[in-house]
Structures are given as structure tokens and as C-alpha cells.
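Q: What structure does this chain adopt?
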Amino acid sequence: MLNIPQEKLTAIKNFAHQYIFKLLCQQDIPFILAHLDPQLIGIGAAEHNYYDTPQAAKDFILSL
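A:
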């Protein structure tokens, strides 16, 4: 078990909730792209859920 302080765990949970809400409910693309590494390659649950550039990530988010 990791020894992570409770306030850090709370901050992580709060950010995860905010990120998922902004991704799936608000489709806040600037927020999402600001938190992705430009070198990130994303692979979702399906073959077509793939992105490797900020524009492809934007297109993927809009397709959700």
C-alpha cells in the first residue's frame, strides 16, 4: 500500500473528477488539451479511439 497523505489523495480524486466531467460532460477541449502531454498517444476502448496529436485529441473528444 502506498503511503500517500490524505490531502494529496483528496486532491487527486478531485482533479480526476473535474477532468472526467470536463471531458465527458462539458467537452472543455482547452482544459483537456492543457493537461495532456504533447507527446501523448491516447488509445481508447475501440480501434477508432486513437489520437497522437492535439488536433486528433480534440477530434476524439468531440466524438464522445
